[in-house]
Write a structure and sequence with these properties.
The complex is a heterodimer of chains A (about 300) and B (about 260). By secondary structure, chain A is mainly alpha-helical. Chain A has 11 helices and 2 strands; from the N terminus they run H-H-H-H-E-H-H-H-H-E-H-H-H. The chains are: A mainly alpha (about 300), B alpha/beta (about 260). The structure holds adenosine-5'-diphosphate and magnesium ion.
């Protein structure tokens, strides 16, 4: 088998891994099922692409795209904490609104970046073994991972974790949980939009529909990561998320090479997530093959 | 230290389920005073503590702590003045976080959170010292997740968390009720020790009349959202459980059936 799909898979795994780290922050740390992601991912692509074709420096464009993502998360957070709309619906509302906003920003359904100067072009110096993009993504992702790990060990980060664990307790310790929720959603969607901006530049175009189902891909990565690396240490968990993202891409690429219809990808991903999330219930059905020691641990 | 004036709290106002949980309650606590609160189920004891803690706004009345009018403050804005221990041992700590991480958050109860690492060696020493007072060996388990601890251990940890930064007022709401008798006794001992050590101002709800008279230096009894008895000093020293029950029925002008007050054995 021709193995030259491996490097692109790793590159994709890394760049989408940034989005998965964002999903990890909301779903796992904050315990908030945030669907803003499907809108903030293409938002990142849209802002970056529009700015790049308008002549902006791609670094600046990527940074601004991330900030827009933060704002999208903040809006979801405000809908939830100030207007008391459920978390799920708040995310869906922002995501839906973003579809129109993204179209407005782009002026049309897609923008090509193939002939533009992209962020990688500023990092040609990383051209080790002719793999400048791989190296660029690797460095970016490592920096982000270390920053997230560090943040979650600071006082503020610990308060964010506690907000996802026990709101009553952390409020009684003087923390404004509304602010924490908004902060977490902002950070998460900032990462997601950053990922969207980088994906757009990596694939050479952005499309208003490129966010559809992205949340499930993020979740799949988080779940694969959890299965691979079983640890309650955040340092390991974030590493797991990135591994999960890379493995997801490798599996997908392999499946495509085995002539899986690309249109079935989202179905496959959804099934994977259903299996992983529904696993514990499936095990309860007492199917011998599904039983493991795991099921007996906690009551 | 604590002043509650004309506190009125009505739940489900304007509906069939309208329920007056606090009727113009006045209560004043001096600095260092240790007040125990008794009363039948639904008397409004928890509501009193919750309004002091700011879990919900009052319909009428005011609350001030250490001279600061906190009536309009949400719960998290009063946390620098108040600390509390809940009845449910699971509510006072974050299970997925370590003992040390929980203590960091308790340490920051009255100050701003920073972007510095929460745990450092100086704090670890401080935490170990604070935990050693419990005599449960938790000082050697700083890195363990709180979810691994038993209910009693978690409640003991919550007590340490509540007193790590000395609060102006400590609120205890039947904080031993969910524990087995032996553990409960242990927690009561720890509570006494901490209150004495830090000379705390305390409001403690208990369903145990013995405990109510035994601990602290003043006892109030609540019924239907009112304070129907308030005793301290000599009067309290002479008070017995029977006397308490009698006082209660007199104050209410009605007979008290035994199940009105849960007597713990
Ligand atoms: N959050 C709430 N919503 C509606 N009713 C409540 C709420 N909290 C307490 N109550 C009602 O207020 C009354 C006093 O309750 P509570 O203060 O919990 O009593 P106690 O702690 O003395 O047993 C009860 O009738 C209770 O049903
Ligand atoms: Mg109660």
């Amino acid at each position: 088998m021709n193995l030259n799909f491996i490097v692109p898979s790793i590159e994709q795994g890394l760049v989408y891994g940034i989005m998965a780290l964002g999903v990890y922050l909301t779903f796992k740390i904050l315990d908030f099922p945030d669907l803003t992601v499907d809108g903030s991912f293409p938002l990142g692509g849209a802002v970056a692409a529009k700015m790049i074709v308008s002549g902006a420096n791609p670094l600046v464009a990527t940074l601004v795209a991330s900030i827009f993502g933060v704002l999208a998360g903040v809006i979801t957070g405000l809908l939830h904490t100030k207007l008391k709309i459920t978390g799920l619906l708040s995310g869906i509302l922002t995501m839906t609104a973003l579809y129109s906003i993204n179209l407005r920003l782009m002026g049309r359904a897609n923008i090509s970046l193939l002939n533009e100067v992209r962020i990688f072009d500023h990092f040609r110096g990383l051209n080790i073994f002719g793999r400048d993009r791989l190296i660029f993504f690797l460095i970016t992702v490592i920096i982000l991972k270390v920053l997230i790990d560090w943040f979650l060990r600071t006082e503020l980060g610990l308060a964010l974790i506690a907000t996802g664990d026990n709101k009553k307790m952390i409020r009684s310790l003087g923390v404004n949980t509304d602010l924490m929720t908004i902060l977490g959603l902002g950070l998460s969607n900032g990462l997601v939009a950053l990922s969207g901006a980088l994906v757009a530049q990596y694939q050479g175009f952005t499309d208003v529909g490129m966010g559809i189902g992205i949340i499930i891909i993020g979740l799949a990565s988080v779940i694969i990561g959890e299965t691979l690396i079983r640890s309650d240490k955040i340092w390991w968990a974030t590493l797991g998320v990135l591994f999960g993202s890379v493995i997801y891409r490798l599996v997908i690429m392999t499946a495509l090479r085995l002539n899986l219809n690309p249109n079935d990808l989202k179905l496959m991903t959804a099934l994977l997530v259903i299996l992983a999330l529904g696993g514990p219930e499936l095990k309860k059905l007492n199917l011998g093959i599904f039983r493991s020691k795991e099921g007996e641990v906690d009551a | 230290m604590l002043k509650v004036k004309g506190a009125l709290k009505v739940f489900n106002k304007g509906t069939i389920n309208q329920n007056v949980a606090l009727r113009n309650v006045d209560l004043e606590l001096k600095s260092g005073e240790f007040l125990t609160v008794v009363g039948s189920n639904g008397a409004g004891k928890s509501t009193l503590l919750n309004t002091v803690a700011g879990n919900f706004p009052l319909d009428k009345g005011s609350i001030s702590i250490d001279g600061i009018d906190v009536t309009s403050f949400p719960d998290y804005k009063r946390a620098n003045l108040i600390s509390r221990v809940f009845q449910d041992p699971l509510q006072g700590t974050a299970a997925s976080m370590t003992i040390a991480e929980n203590l960091v958050l308790a340490l920051k109860r009255s100050s701003r959170l920073s972007l510095k690492l929460g745990i450092n060696s100086k704090r670890e020493e401080e935490f170990k010292e604070a935990l050693s007072i419990l005599g449960l060996g938790l000082e050697d388990r700083l890195g363990d997740k709180v979810g691994l601890l038993s209910g009693g251990q978690r409640q003991a940890l919550t007590l340490v968390m509540a007193t790590l930064e000395k609060p102006k007022v400590l609120l205890l709401d039947e904080h031993t009720a969910a524990l087995d008798p032996k553990t409960a006794k242990n927690i009561v001992d720890i509570t006494k020790k901490l209150i004495k050590e830090y000379n705390l101002t305390v409001l403690m709800v208990t369903h145990d009349l013995n405990q109510a008279l035994d601990l602290g230096d003043r006892t109030i009894m609540m019924d239907k959202g009112e304070i129907v008895l308030d005793i301290s000093g000599k009067e309290r020293e002479k008070m017995t459980i029977e006397g308490l029950l009698e006082q209660f029925s007199r104050a209410r002008g009605s007979r008290l059936s035994n199940d009105r007050i849960l007597l713990a054995q």
